[in-house]
Design goal:
The chain contains 16 helices and 14 strands. The strands form three sheets. It has an eight-stranded mixed β-sheet, sandwiched between helices. A four-stranded antiparallel β-sheet has the order 10-11-14-13. Bound molecules: pyridoxal-5'-phosphate (PLP). Pyridoxal-5'-phosphate (PLP) binds next to α7.
Length: about 425
């Protein structure tokens, strides 16, 4: 008799749903489809030659280290490089404040494991990164949400929600996934003061911070928090845990991210990571170190900024040219995404079906809302990093056909 696997699943596993995006990626991979759905970097910009040289060197000179078990915290050389790199952006972390993770996604899972008891409330942006909702929901998170606008999280609405005592708030200050918006300097300062006033920790997720195409760098929350505490050089204090990754600057296939936190928190996260995977691949860590060292990462980031800036501009131009005036969109200063808002009466799920018929794909916006309402169905996320400029133009033209035909079928009210 075969085992009834389903009846053995934990409650936690039974409640997990597959990511809408992973499902979509399957549909959108069909031949002839132009996909703005995934958050994929452009494969043409992967520094393949540099990887080949690094691989050769790691195996020739460091095979005993690279192919062996390693420390759960990560390889010392890589952690030190990350600490030096971040110092240039004002984040004065020591090696002991850095934990290497298997992608930022693992960081989100470990944070969920560390902080969330079933039923705990987590404050998120509306919309927010779907992968964080997936990671936190497994631990039974309930959500409170605060909307974003063109200047990021609307901090003027934050205080009432903070009074409800969330366990922590999860914030994406730079070129937010999915909306592409950036938290303004003034709002960052306000957020830090409020986090301090109510004693609510902040998880700052920053995979895109280095992919800025215009405007000036804005200090991360983790830096403003230290300044507020007057403890710039002491990482045992502070309300902010900072996450970043090599996925968007080098290659997501590396599965390499990191957490910056007070040493006490790093210690606890390290214990939890031991149970998850003992440590992130030593081979991959040494590869990333060899690839990134000697200024290569900075040079490479400058190159990819150029490529993505052009693609963003092509998408913005095509939207202005092809889309009807009832539809609006964000104008991201960096990152990989822009966010379209449809007029009331239209919904992104039925648009998605018409778009597939036109051979173009995107992610309907409702996936990115922890708390769904009528509003959440009015948006779509478009990625501009993966397709070539010619495909972007053609994809937006196709999408405009689907949008215009949907518009004719609904009684549109101006927003
Ligand atoms: C906001 C955000 N956080 C985390 C991740 C996960 O990144 P990683 O590839 O490092 O796991 C992503 C990936 O798209 C993201 O957009």
């Amino acid at each position: 008799m075969s085992t009834l696997w389903k009846s053995r699943y934990s409650l936690r596993a039974t409640e997990v749903k597959s990511s809408a995006i992973r499902e979509l990626l399957r549909v959108s991979g069909k031949p002839g489809m132009i996909s703005f759905a995934g958050g994929l970097p452009a494969p043409e910009v992967f520094p393949v030659e540099r990887f080949k040289e690094a691989c050769e060197k790691v195996l020739r000179e460091h095979s005993a280290l690279a192919l062996q078990y390693g420390a759960t915290e990560g390889c010392e050389v890589l952690r030190a490089m990350i600490a030096r790199h971040m110092a240039r952006y004002g984040i004065q972390a020591h090696v002991d404040n850095v934990l290497i993770t298997s992608g930022s996604q693992q960081a989100l899972d470990l944070i969920g494991k560390l902080f969330i008891n079933s039923g705990d409330r987590v404050l998120v942006e509306a919309p927010t990164y779907l992968g964080a909702l997936q990671a936190f929901s497994v631990y039974g998170a309930q959500y409170l949400s605060v909307p974003v606008d063109a200047d990021g999280l609307r901090t003027e609405l934050l205080e009432d929600t903070l009074r409800l005592g969330p366990k922590f708030m999860y914030v994406l200050p730079n070129f937010q996934n999915p909306a592409g918006v950036t938290l303004s300097e003034g709002r960052r300062e306000q957020l830090i003061l409020l986090a301090d006033k109510y004693g609510i920790p902040v998880i700052e997720d920053d995979p895109y911070g280095q992919l800025r195409y215009e405007g000036k760098h804005i200090a991360p929350l983790v830096v403003l928090d230290r300044q507020n505490m007057r403890r710039d050089d002491d990482f045992s204090f502070g309300n902010v845990i900072y996450l970043s990754t090599f996925s968007k600057t080098l290659a997501p296939g590396l599965r390499l991210g990191w957490i910056v936190a007070p040493t006490e928190v790093i210690g606890k996260l390290t214990q939890l990571k031991q149970g998850a995977d003992l440590h992130t691949s030593t081979f991959t860590q040494l590869m990333a170190y060899e690839v990134a060292r000697g200024g290569f990462l900075d040079h490479h980031v400058r190159q990819i900024r150029k490529v993505y800036r052009e693609r963003r501009d092509v998408m913005l131009q095509a939207l202005a040219e092809f889309f009807p005036s009832e539809v609006t969109w964000t104008r991201p200063k960096g990152g990989l995404f822009l966010w379209i808002s449809l007029p009331q009466g239209m919904d992104s799920q039925s648009l998605f079906r018409s778009a597939l018929a036109e051979n173009v794909a995107f992610v309907p916006g409702d996936s990115f809302y922890a708390i769904k309402d009528r509003e959440s169905n009015r948006h779509l996320r478009l990625n501009f990093s993966y397709c070539s400029p010619a495909q972007i133009r053609e994809g937006i033209r196709r999408l405009s056909v689907a949008v215009k035909s949907q518009l004719l079928q609904v009684d549109v009210q101006p927003v």
